[in-house]
């Protein structure tokens, strides 16, 4: 009877397992619009009051499928970038780790790579730097710079002694695409936006994304529209005139309302009938205004109407997964001393503070470090500006071109650089690549402006960056002209043939900062028998060019003091005063030497006094621990 039961049970299990093996999900797997070869449209997730699908575009400046080799004379989609990261993870398994840190708002993977020699220790035991691109979906040059740096590091490991030493002793974290939703929309459609594609009421009218731009002439690009003022109402609004610098009449110059000949719009229609054009397109939140340091509410959300607000700030600090994933990674990896989270398109080494002056709010020693990197960066990249957001960035143009008034410092809230320094205590830059083609001051007026960009486009770029004004019969405005600078691959990002010049120089600056990371090293361990006890004197140095902690890092306690400990087998230290091994000094219960913070180039020493209550020699490990300087240990023997 029992055999029959067991036989029946086994048959039931086989049937059950077979049924389980054949089980299929009836939930269709999500297909991203960039992967859907059948669809002619690019669809964006989220419930909005405006359009969520657009004609799928392919731009000649973009590579949509991986080639046999990776070159930087063309832009790459997130999928193409991820292809290469997967290739590198297989090709360099000893020094890379590829993983998903989060999923974007729409659910796409956000991949990150750790680069370090695994044989020389854990990545968290080493000083580290973090480099990120693609936070703003349309600022694709930033992602290319992170991709270039990754390739440069991996291909030169074992060939370039400095890079080999860097990867053997430090950790580099790279995240090329922190906002794959925005980047894919940018590269697969005519649409563009600031950051995430989450619906947002930009114009505060109670509707979400109801008035996006439209490609009216069907060329796949959203250009400008200029309307010659004809009616009295239009003439009151007209605030542009033809700039006489350009003999072809392509450029317009801003003047006061009512003193112009033209009204300017971005290409599209007034979908919600409020008299404004394209003021509430796809998304509108800004991942670079969503950090917790000095965060302020979005436009219109200050109850008093008299306080500060910050456009695109989000519902609350870290409300967006893309920013939150960066924050959580950094907070859980306090070994990171250097960060650059890249953007476009002001050619500038951009750093904190964002809401106050450097002199007002930075520790003098920290400020000196930042000013050193400002100069170093400019010497490598040739950017015309380097400095803080609040003063240098805000006043770089000196005067308001329209009013002639001197520019004043202006705060940005919830900004990455403020978080990076005041909250995280790191050397944090938010560098901006590209310059709208304004390579030099052609007319000698002291500024690099649209005229200079137009001259460079004509002389060096084959006039490909500017579309000549072409008449178009607008359904609401009547006769207009469509044209202007190419917004994607001239205005916001450069022409592909010029790409590698920018991203390589930026990457070399990032690499230079990584080379300066702090590095705690044990110089010597001396063991001497004195009055029946053993004195263990440990000396160490910080061989890096950065301290193990900025003064701000000490203030906010993102780093601990450097600590020194002596570890024996637990059996030897059991029994208190009867233990076979007793650490007499330090007298603290945890027997740890707290050594403060080791400055760049500084050498320190500390002493343990150990009593050994046995004749046999004992082994111990000297452990030196620094939050940002690394972790090292050395084995010693006490006794003969």
Report what the structure shows.
The protein is α+β, with helices and mostly antiparallel strands and 640 residues long. 26% of the residues lie in helices and 23% in strands. The protein is built from 16 helices and 28 strands. Strands 5-6-8-7-13-17 form a six-stranded mixed β-sheet, sandwiched between helices. The protein is elongated, with a radius of gyration of 30 Å. Residues 1-20 have low confidence and may be disordered.
Counted beta strands: 28
- Using only C-alpha atoms, the radius of gyration works out to 30 Å
* Terminus-to-terminus distance: 73 Å
pLDDT below 50 for ≥5 consecutive residues: which ranges? 1-20
In terms of structural class, how would the helical and strand content be classed?
A: alpha+beta
Range of strand content: 15-25%
Shape: elongated
- Number of helices, counting only DSSP H or I runs of 4 residues or more: 16
Query: Strands of the largest sheet, in order across it?
Result: 5-6-8-7-13-17
Helix content: 25-40%
Largest sheet: 6 strands, mixed
Mean pLDDT: 94
